[in-house]
Structures are given as structure tokens and as C-alpha cells.
Amino acid sequence: SMRNGGNGVTEETSRDANCCRAEVGELVQRLVRAFQLFERDHIRVLGFTSTQGYALLEVSERPGVTMNELSERMNVDGSTMTRVVDLLVRDGWLVRRREDDDRRVVRVFLAEKAGEAVSRLRDNLDAYYGNIVKNLPEGRVEEVLAVSELLLSALKRSNPKCC
Known about the structure:
7 helices, about 65% helix, 3-stranded antiparallel β-sheet, globular, mainly alpha
């Protein structure tokens, strides 16, 4: 029999949380290392940090995105986003434009020279993700997506700044 202490957590749920901490911790650490290698091999190889690469992709998908929207979409605080965009503007990848009617609003666009780099970045990521899907067991992709969503959801709930 499972006893519920009034907080919605059954003894079984509590036991699950206690028994699997090491396994979940190890899995999360291995995933982090895998993503670091992915970033090194597929984003940094083009000369961008992962944050810069994802910022370029966001701007390419939403030309004229405001700095605030970009910060929110990337889950990065405003000052960090400003530093990232400053460097990309300095290096000629992005262009900032102020709104005519409200000079406080800054919109971000890809610079002309960024088109090819963003295409290569997108192609690298598409190929990498395609390779992952190809290496999943046949007929189990939906299951992997569902379980990954559960893990991401748990990460979000355990750390609101997460993702």
C-alpha cells in the first residue's frame, strides 16, 4: 500500500527519487558532455561560440527580433545577450537598428555576409540531428522524444533558470 502524506508525494515516488539520484545525475552529466562535444564539432568549428551560433539562427528565423525577445527566446539575461550581440555586430555578422518611433527599441538583423555562415551552421545542425535520428532504434523516435520531454520538464521544474 502506498501512503500519501498529504503533499501529493507517495512513498513510492519518494523511494524512486532517492534510489535513482546517482543514475539520473550520471545520465545528465553524460548528456552535458555529449552536447559540449556536439557544440565543439558543429558550431565552434565555424568560429562561433554556441551562444553566438544559436543567436545567429534565432535572428535568421526572426529578422528584426528585438533584443528583449532574443534574450527571452534564448533564455539568456539581457546584459549577456547584449555582449553576445555586440561581438557579432563588431565582427560584421549582425546589424542593430533602432525603431524610428521608439528609439529605445533595438531590432537585430543578419548582416549580408552572415547568410552563408548561417546556412552552413544550419546544415551542420540538420546533418547532426539527422544522424541522431538515424541511430535511434527503428520505431522508437516518438518514445525518445516523449521521454526527453519528461527529462527537460523535470530539469525546468528543478531549476527555473534552466531552459
